[in-house]
Amino acid sequence: MANTQEKEDSKPTASSKKKTVKEEKDALQDFLLGITGLSDSMKKRVHKVLNTEGIIDPRGIKSLTNKQLEELPGITEATASLLLDQFKTKQEGKIFLSLEEREELETVRSKIKTGAKALDDLLQGGIPTGTFVELYGAPQSGKTQLCYTITANCLLPKEYGGLESGIIWLDTEGSFNSQRLKQILSYYKYTHNIPDDKIDTGKFMVAATRTLSQIELALKEAGRIIAKNKVKLLIVDSLMDPFRAEYGGLGQLADRQKHLNRVLHLLMRIAEAWDLAVLYTNQVMANPDPFATAMDKVLPSGGFILGHASDIRIWLRRATSKIRNQYDAQNARRALITDCGWLPMTETHFSLGPFGVCDVDEEAKLRDLALEIGLGLDSEEDELEEEELETEFAKIE
Ligand SMILES: Nc1ncnc2c1ncn2[C@@H]1O[C@H](COP(=O)(O)OP(=O)(O)O)[C@@H](O)[C@H]1O
Ligand SMILES: [Mg+2]
Known about the structure:
By secondary structure, the chain is α/β, with parallel strands linked by helices. It has helices at residues 2-10, 14-33, 40-52, 58-62, 66-70, 77-88, 99-108, 117-122, 143-155, 178-192, 212-229, 240-246, 253-274, 303-309, 321-326, 363-372, 379-396, and strands at residues 111-112, 127-128, 132-137, 166-171, 204-208, 231-237, 277-282, 284-286, 298-300, 312-318, 333-340, 347-353, 356-358.
């Protein structure tokens, strides 16, 4: 009898389902209800307009500028200001914070694991949410592989070191491969013994954004997904590619930088409103300065505008043969923090294994494990890849 009762209780009834849907909607409704100086009919209208724009949470409003709000149908200049003013009176909208308040804000930020302990240590625990992280390097330096493993770590349940959060991935190069992400996830499931239903891959969303207008459209759509999937990571792989494609000539550089600035500000508002990490990859170019030091021989593209936006810049390169041989890690890479306001300029090594990013001393072991659990590695393709890799790196070094 008790059992039946229990079953009855846990069964979602029509009314409880309705309740959850209502609860989800309430975040925006509650926010609007609390505003004085806005008529009930106006509140209803604003609610409807924001919902059709994909804003289902008040933080979505915070990610917009006055101008963007005013452009929405039926929202006047006064209403837009009133909506944005609400954040100024709340703790998160306070202009000045004491040292203690600021420290509290920084410590509540989650850290996303990278897959290699050495890299996590370099970043003092992982990638902090609320920051802009740039991975730059030559082709095949491991930028996209790092994005996969960081994505997998976001999806992992909390008890296994993950964030259980959602991820948005903007694929500008058409290089995203769902099988590769699944492979990395299956490794974590296998090694941590995680049941299938414990990882909600539905929280991962990818958009093919080959053009700048597609990026901007996707970012506009993002609010709805961020709220629904509790997104904590937004990836752009790679950020500069569409800018380079659409603003080719030197004469277009100023326009390109203006446009880049606009997209970065859009990303900043989203990151700030939702406290999510923005991770973007970037290519490198040869430094035109003939007096550049060995370290500055290559530069990330995007100029000062991108340089100022990135909170942490990490340069990825192939490791020296000494390191590769020492650890029997032919895929070993170097990661150097070249610019960060709170981390020293230090370097570490990590590797790219069959299961994504790992520590250098794990690569050989994981290669064996891949064979053992039946994840076949095509050695011929690997050799070819190695050759191509050498030429790509030779161009840079
Ligand atoms: N399945 C795999 N097993 C082992 N290593 C892989 C696998 N897939 C990719 N890699 C490694 O990742 C490298 C490509 O890295 P990637 O992150 O795609 O480069 P990029 O910096 O251009 O984004 C390959 O050269 C290879 O060393
Ligand atoms: Mg790539």
